[in-house]
Amino acid sequence: MAIFLTEDSKVLVQGMTGAEGMKHTRRMLAAGTDVVGGVNPRKAGSTVDLDGRALPVFGSVAEGMRSTGADVTVVLVPPAFAAAAVGEAADAGIGLAVVITEGIPVHDSVAFIARARARGTRVIGPNCPGLISPGRSNAGIVPADITAPGRVGLVSRSGTLTYQLMHELRDTGFSTCVGIGGDPVVGTSHIDCLTAFEEDPETDLVVLVGEIGGDAEERAAAHIREHVTKPVVGYIAGFTAPEGRTMGHAGAIVSGSAGTARAKKEALEAAGVRVGATPTETARLVRAVLDGRT
After folding, report:
1. C-alpha 286 chain-centroid distance
2. Cβ(184)–Cβ(250) under 8 Å?
3. Residues 131, 142: Cα–Cα separation, whole Å
4. CB within 8 A of 107, min separation 6: which ones?
5. Residue 294 and residue 291: Cα distance in Å, rounded?
6. For the segment 11-65, what is each residue's pLDDT rounded down to a tens digit?
7. Least confident of 4-13, 35-44, 142-151, 211-220
8. I want to staple 121 with a disulfide (CB 3.0 to 4.6 A). Which of 116, 176, 264, 273 is the partner?
9. Taking the mean position of all CA atoms in its chain, how far away is CA 212?
10. How large is the C-alpha radius of gyration of the chain?
């Protein structure tokens, strides 16, 4: 199995006709994703030929869903149009919206995430790499050739660290890797992914990657203590970051002791999570747990 995204997922791409949209749609197709079309009201009725496959362009997400049975959309539109794009997808009743776009104003994200939740649409992101179930489907911009299928789940705030852990653990492979995004407001949390991985019979261990800022990892630690029976291995980025300064992601700001890498590490370890000091050490801990050596 996999969480949120399987080989049966049918994917639309909002923004497919743009340069970035076409590039990443090609990569998704190469990874085996069942991309069934794009959405662009100005180019509705046309087709886009990508590596020998003619993909239809629909005028709306609703039209695309009616014509293809799509249940996933990947949003690759500019920030100014992202709220409308996700809102349209949610109103159409699509099950999953993967919002790659970065630079979306926080008030826009708050509005479209609330709208999506009210309509039963799961949002992953914004400002995220998407998710991949290796060997099955890839929705977003995650490189598909750096890992393999396996029985480890991965949830990460950082796109770059998503890729690094995938590569570090390419010998073990993954059920699903989810980049949830690093903005202050995201549609899917560590806890959402931990819950799904806990319920997935083909995931044996979960890797949780966090970073400084906010309290998402502390809340995840509390959830792990009460609800997760599978082993969890963690990594927190930002031990050397100065306090009181935004670092990289808009959500990565530390104030006093709240949100520090040390506070997050201590919270996770108190919940029984093994936390690596580096991505490489984190990968070693994963192997040790899987091999029964710790």
Report:
1. 20
2. yes
3. 7
4. none
5. 8
6. 999 999 999 999 999 999 999 999 999 999 999 999 999 988 999 999 999 999 9
7. 211-220
8. 116
9. 18
10. 19
Taking the C-alpha atoms of residue 225 and residue 84, their distance in angstroms, rounded to an integer, is 38
Q: Is the dihedral of CA 16, 22, 23, 25 positive or negative?
A: positive
Phi, psi for 243 (deg, rounded to 5): -70, 150
Any idea what the Cα angle at residue 208 is, between residues 12 and 35, rounded to 5°?
Answer: 10
Q: How many CB atoms lie within 10 A of CB 278?
A: 13
Contacts for 213 with CB less than 8 Å, ≥ 6 apart = 238, 247, 249, 251, 252, 253, 254, 259
Residue found by looking up tokens 């999506």 in the block? 116
Q: List the 205-211 sheet strands across, edge first.
A: 137-140, 130-133, 174-179, 149-156, 205-211, 232-237, 274-276
Half-sphere exposure (CA, 13 Å, Cβ side) for 155? 26
CA 209, 211, 215: angle at the middle one, nearest 5?
105
Cβ-contact 90, 83 below 8 angstroms? no
E strands in 44-197: 47-50, 53-58, 72-75, 96-99, 122-124, 130-133, 137-140, 149-156, 174-179
Name the strand (E) or helix (H) holding 9.
none
Considering the candidates 24, 190, 223, 249, report the single residue annotated as catalytic. 249
* Segment 158-196, tens digit of pLDDT: 999 999 999 999 999 999 999 999 999 999 999 999 999
Is residue 249 among the annotated active site residues?
Answer: yes
Q: Using CB atoms within 10 A of its CB, is residue 44 exposed (0-12), middle (13-18) or buried (19+)?
A: middle
CA separation for the pair 101, 110 (Å, rounded): 15
Residue with tokens 């998710």, as numbered in its chain:
131
Q: Tell me if residue 161 falls in helix, strand or coil.
A: helix
